[in-house]
Amino acid sequence: MLILRDESFRVTTLDRYLLSRYFHILAVFFVAMMGLYVVADGFTNLDEFQAAAGDGGTSALIKLMGRHYLYHSSLMFSLTGPTLAVMSSMCVLILSLKHGEVHPVLAAGVPLYRMAAPLVVGVLLVNGLLTANQEWIIPRISQHFVGTRGDSTSDAQKVDPTYDSQGIFVAGNELYLDRQMIHGARFLIPRSLVEESMTLRADEATFHPATGSRPAGWLLKNVNVPLERIVPTEAGRRVLFAQQNGEDIFIQSGLTFDQLYNRSMGFRYLSTEKLLTRIRNPSAGLAVRRSQVIHLHERLTRPVLTLIGLFLVIPLTTRREKQSLVTNVAVCMGVVGVVYAFAQGMLLFGNTGLLPPAHCAWLPLITAGALATWLSPLAQT
Questions:
Q1: What is the rounded CA–CA span in Å between residue 204 and residue 192?
Q2: What is the mean pLDDT of residues 19-25?
Q3: Dihedral sign, CA of 343, 347, 353, 356?
Q4: How far apart are CA 121 and CA 209, in angstroms?
Q5: pLDDT score of 150 more than 70
Q6: pTM of structure
Q7: Least buried of 74, 88, 264, 362, by fewest C-beta within 10 Å?
Q8: DSSP H or E stretch at residue 205
């Protein structure tokens, strides 16, 4: 019977040393990755930045680029964080083996997986940072991820026309993210809501989220059709609400302003709570809804898959067979690369609709977990 002693859970100097090395390597990887991205993207799109900076000179250009890439660093951390977390743990093990730090610990009777406990803590902390970044930071700055380089939230965006869940077709001339407003809005109301289908044109339409007992919807200002000509059906009376000034009308709708631009990717910037609301109250096509469901499962499986990646790295990097360190690293990177490629491939395959989204998201997790268990006896003891 395995007996766990209190010493097994005590934080040692070696634990602090390995954890600090882990985050040092993680920071170096992230800074290097962001540096390459800034250099490549910055020089490629320098003309757009200069056009946005105008006559402000070099200082205005640097300030504009700095703000742009500061916002995008959050997005890049979300995209590359899981991979960097696994790569950093592999580098910690490689350096420990190269410097001869593993064998004395094993000779002292400390199991390899106990020695790797700080790496587990490090991966869990990175997953916590990724979750906080996804849930609180990215939703608040997502408007800075659209448009061309140098665009601000007050710049006009092209409206991507679409239908809401009630069959109302929404279009417009321009969309302003900071005001959540459509300029030159056009709402085509179907016959299921009015006695005679009509297009309501308004100077602007502003989205109002649900607050208390008030439902979410769009407030159309200066509608081109006199309100007395709008004869709603029984269903339309629960959707169309004339305002007291006789010129505006409120249309209850679950179609939010962020669904009118970058619709195929915009849901990735939502918090999980809003993503669940979007899935339960769909206002887009079947393909977009399927992508939303797959992305939700991807969020749920990502922390576990990252942790499994660590347990793949440990036995493959510290194999008990007398192989060269270079060979072990090459095999480790190949196996982990295949696992992550399989996971991404299954997510893309799920968009086709040939398999349920849950199967495509969780099958790689089950496969990788079984592989990590099968490889665990290869680790040095």
A1: 24
A2: 96
A3: positive
A4: 39
A5: no
A6: 0.81
A7: 264
A8: strand 198-208
